[in-house]
Amino acid sequence: MTTTTTPQPNTRRPAVVSSARPSTSTVDRRIDDARTGVPALLVDHVTKRFTLGRGRPPVSAVDDVSLRLERGEIHGILGANGSGKSTLIRLICGLLTLDEGRVEIFGLDLERDEMAVKRLINRVSVDAAFFKKLSPLENLSFAARLYGLDAGTGKRDAMAILARLGIGEKRVGRPIEQMSRGMQQKVAIARALLTSPSLLLLDEPTTGLDPRSKLEVQGFIEELRTTHDATIVLTTHDLAEAERLCDRISILNDGRVVAASTPDGLKRLVAERHDQPATLEAAFMTWTGRSLDDDLEAEEDSDDED
Amino acid sequence: MTHELKASFAFVERNFFLTRRYWGWELAFLVYSVAGALSISLIGVEQGSPTLLLSLMIGAIFWNYLSVVFSWIAETIAVERWEGTLEYTFMAPVRRWTQLLGSCSYAIVYGLIHTAAILVVLVLFFPQLHLSQANPATAATFMALGSFSFVGIGMMAAILPLLYVERGAQMCFVLQSCLLLVSGVYYSVDILPPWMQALSHLSPATYVLDGVRQGLIEGTPVTALWGDIWPLLIMAVTFIPLGIWAFGRAERYAKRTGKLKRVG
Ligand SMILES: Nc1ncnc2c1ncn2[C@@H]1O[C@H](COP(=O)(O)OP(=O)(O)OP(=O)(O)O)[C@@H](O)[C@H]1O
Ligand SMILES: [Mg+2]
User: Fold this and answer.
1) N or C, where is chain B less crowded by C-beta within 10 Å?
2) pLDDT tens digits, residue range A227-263?
3) ipTM exceeding the 0.90 mark
4) How many CB pairs under 8 A join A and B?
């Protein structure tokens, strides 16, 4: 374990407890990190291939992807189905091994500093994976213990986060299988927040939520950034959500980053270069189309933008 | 270290929650186990041989213990894999031995309680049994020693559900019945063909059952059973590290090939 660039793990408190406190220390630290040049997440020329059968050529699910997230940033990943978003997320949280490249989280190497890195990250995926016969509280208390929270704190924090997400006390003791998909998804979000991750990986967290729940979750994500010093990677198919939440967006196509910029930057680019309306939808359609003649132009442009 | 131990308790607690939630099934499983043990023991009654009765009873009860421990370890992985939570467990900052230690501790406690319940029923059912010369210390020693090697085998078996979601758990049963066949649970291994006898030396259950029978039927003290003890000691100290190592290898393989994924 390296001790040279120890990241400051968040104080073990869920965001809800300290809702509206603008933290100057967060900003300070962000400036600090920017100065020392330690990004919250560094994905450096990462490639992952899957072999789908004997004799068939391997599929490059993620192909030479590089990303750099500063602390406190919300980075959106857009792309069509099968473009490699979830694979990228899995690579970052160590559920898949890298074929090529390297990943650093707050300066810690994903493979070398495995345990330290694991403590800093958590993930919410599209499917709410739980022991469905157990209650939200039982599932969350399991997660809390795995991350070293003591039982009492774990339970209190879990209740607070669940309540904040609209899951009342009478629900927390009943089996998860009796909940709707959207409610299960909220419990999944609560599970991730419970461990106070410094880097939160959200893989389509709002897919399947009703409009109000969606707004609630989005509000919560914003709140996480401002009051909780979390850095977030967010994949979504909801372009309005991406626009609302993301500081920067990378568009993936066939495992490659074909465009990366701020939401406004992408809109401007698609209008100027491709004579399209200045919307994220137009950007999505343009860059995730299958013709990729000038596929790296936006990436190059975005570099001189920031 | 304290963190790891605490974290391993997470698995104990979670498995306890599962048992509690499925209590109806636990009861049904107990009925199933009792019925199985009874029907085998009754062969001894029919033959009019108290020694055979006791021998079969011991086989049924201890096989039950070993298979319950074994399958709990493999099954918790199977359930996690099935529910998709395994990805989250693997993301958590705990070492793999911590996870396996937690699962195994729970499996042993569960196995002991389950087996004790069967023992009580059988003793009540066969009042003609007299265990006056039995040496319970011998039986307990062998059971404790045998647990270690079965934990190791359980860890290796857990690889199957790790890699094969749908059929992994069933494949564990295949392994279990092969062990049953060669371990002399209901008969002496001497009657097996030579090649099977060779295999029986590799099964810890062979030594456990032999030791327990000697202890309960003949009243032999542990000290006189060194021949059964040392293989178990060797298996205990090799199978557990081997199990952890093999599981780790399988995990790496799964992460390389993308086998952990369920959906999404
Ligand atoms: N475990 C796996 N084994 C084999 N192939 C995989 C695996 N996971 C992903 N792939 C392949 O990698 C590619 C990218 O898949 P991925 O799940 O990352 O896409 P995605 O962008 O998340 O799509 P969606 O929007 O549908 O969630 C697809 O071609 C998929 O078939
Ligand atoms: Mg996906």
Assistant:
1) N
2) 878 899 999 999 999 999 999 999 999 999 999 999 9
3) no
4) 97
